[in-house]
Specification:
- By secondary structure, this protein is an alpha/beta fold.
- It has two domains: 253 residues, Type I PLP-dependent aspartate aminotransferase-like (Major domain) (Aspartate Aminotransferase, domain 2, 3-Layer(aba) Sandwich), CATH 3.40.640; 133 residues, Aspartate Aminotransferase, domain 1 (Alpha-Beta Complex).
- Helices cover 39% and strands 15% of the residues.
- The chain has 15 helices and 14 strands.
- The strands form three sheets. It has a seven-stranded mixed β-sheet, sandwiched between helices. The protein has a five-stranded mixed β-sheet with strand order 10-11-14-13-12. Strands 1-2 form a two-stranded antiparallel sheet.
- Helix 5 links the parallel strand 4 and strand 5.
- It is globular and about 75 Å long.
- Bound molecules: pyridoxal-5'-phosphate (PLP).
């Protein structure tokens, strides 16, 4: 197989289309799907040699690696500007691998409180069982990070933009605080996408994606990826991930590899529509707030625009009149679907208090800024005018509209 190593001068959009390609002897244009668990050896000696040390394009078993998965890893690493990547079965397998592979009993971690529910479960419930101490802070409060990080803090963990109320964390400032204490910076970068932000350039050591979101972007398969230095990926993540079974399926890798060809176009189009919708809804009589990092009314708009090229593809809306009003709006939408994924080509809306964040107490939800009237809108690829018309018609059903 021929390895087409990316030219270092290629821009991210070019890398997202060509990086990592491995062509078989047939010279196929579209990447091959190697739907195989195992690989054959020419001789007993060749098998022995590969188990002693597999070369960069030599495979043993798909739980350890697979050529299609490897193409996805190389392509996303090139797009992100990371030395290497390890692909996993889901975003949570990536978060779990990154944290568990690097931590041991006695270590300390500082994490932002506003986290995806399953990430919070790992940090709050699982890691402490194995003797890892975790301190939670308000991720937007730099003094809180300063007070929590100490010598012996092994890592800090946060989402660059939090779910669902879109708080923006100052990556460079948190990285300075963490690095001064010798801690690694791990960023769950789903909301900023691989398109809008140079997360490693801002100071992250490890970047994680749920590829289920914008990378697939078409609602088909689960996937995840951990990105970082070659040393960290191959010496810390790979041994943990390959022995604990969180490998990405070659079929999903093939879907996601093709998705990377369009992720830049899709995210930019979705973000442009999100900005138009946020502007169109800002000040609507039925809404107490429209939260979108790309709006100048967002409390961290300046930081968001310094860190990211665009405001992202997700908008939080606070409907006046609490849950009943929020439900009335959801049920009146005709185009936008009620579901809980995000980053999809189809616009999707969620009521976090009764779905994704249902298990939290009211106080915990309040601490995260989630009220009974909060809706999270993931903007898709439909025509912006159609989406705005659907939202306007549905908001007219809300009690505050009159
Ligand atoms: C969805 C999501 C995850 C988990 O990803 P899965 O692919 O569903 O396992 C982790 N972090 C964030 C921020 C997410 O949005």
């Amino acid at each position: 197989m021929k390895d087409t190593t990316p030219n270092p001068s290629w821009k991210p959009r070019t890398r997202a289309i060509h990086a990592g390609t491995r062509r078989s002897q047939y010279g196929e244009v579209s990447e091959a799907l190697f739907l195989t668990q195992g690989f054959v050896y020419d001789s007993a000696e060749a098998a022995e040699a590969r188990f002693i040390e597999a070369g960069p394009d030599e495979y043993i078993y798909a739980r350890y690696g697979n050529p299609t998965v490897r193409m996805f890893e190389d392509r996303i690493a090139a797009l992100e500007g990371a030395e290497d990547a390890f692909a996993t079965a889901s975003g949570m397998a990536a978060v779990n691998a990154a944290l568990t592979a690097m931590l041991k009993a006695g270590d300390h971690v500082v994490a932002a409180r506003a986290l995806f529910g399953s990430c919070l479960y790992i940090l709050e419930e699982i890691l402490p069982r194995y003797g890892v101490e975790v301190t939670f802070v308000d991720g937007t409060d730099l003094d809180a990070w300063r007070a929590a990080v100490r010598p012996g803090t092994k890592a800090v963990f946060f989402e660059s933009i939090s779910n669902p109320v879109l708080e923006v964390i100052d990556i460079a400032a948190v990285a300075d605080i963490a690095h001064a204490a010798g801690a690694a910076v791990i960023v769950d970068n789903v909301f900023a996408t691989p398109v809008f932000q140079d997360t490693i350039g801002l100071g992250a050591d490890v970047v994680i994606y749920s590829a289920t979101k914008h990378i697939d972007g078409q609602g088909r398969c689960l996937g995840g990826v951990v990105l970082g230095t070659r040393d960290f990926i191959r010496k810390t993540i790979e041994p943990y991930a390959k022995h604990t079974g969180g490998a990405m399926s070659p079929f999903n890798a093939w879907v996601l590899l093709k998705s990377l060809e369009t992720v830049d176009l899709r995210c930019r189009a979705q973000a442009a529509t999100a900005l138009r919708i946020a502007q169109a809804l800002d000040g609507h009589a039925a809404l107490a707030r429209v939260i979108f990092p790309g709006l100048s009314s967002h409390p961290q708009h300046a930081l968001a625009m310094r860190q990211m090229e665009q405001g992202g593809t997700v908008i939080a809306l606070e409907v006046k009149g609490g849950q009943a009003a929020a439900f009335a709006v959801l049920n009146a939408l005709k185009l936008i679907t009620i579901s809980n994924n995000l980053g999809d080509a189809k616009s999707i809306i969620t009521h976090p208090a009764t779905t994704t964040h249902q298990r939290l107490t009211e106080d915990q939800r309040a601490a995260l800024g989630i009220t009974p009237g909060t809706l999270r809108l993931s903007v898709g690829l439909e025509d912006a005018d159609d989406l705005i018309a659907d939202l306007h018609a549905a908001l007219a059903a809300a009690p505050g509209a009159a």
